[in-house]
Design brief:
The protein is α+β, with helices and mostly antiparallel strands. It has four helices and three strands. The two termini are 23 Å apart.
């Protein structure tokens, strides 16, 4: 997905390439990969970052407290796909 395609989406995608994730974070791709490259997940030839993961990184950077989900509230439906 390139940046031009984002204009047609109602919101940011749940999974992003480095280019899109960097734009979401407001930094260059090079800076993004230097700071957050470790957190990407390989899927085939792609490395992806989750929007919720990036939101958590932003909250941590700005010392914004995030509510913690109770263990019984955790969605486990994707656990078998890891």
């Amino acid at each position: 997905m390139n940046l031009a395609r984002l204009e047609r989406l109602p919101d940011w995608p749940a999974r992003m390439t480095a280019e899109i994730a960097a734009a979401y974070m407001g930094i260059s791709k090079t800076t993004f990969l230097t700071r957050y490259g470790y957190a990407g997940v390989k899927e085939g030839s792609n490395t992806l970052w989750a929007k919720i993961q990036l939101d958590s990184m932003i909250a941590k950077q700005f010392s914004i407290k995030q509510p913690r989900a109770a263990a019984e509230d955790r969605d486990t439906s994707w656990d078998d796909f890891r």
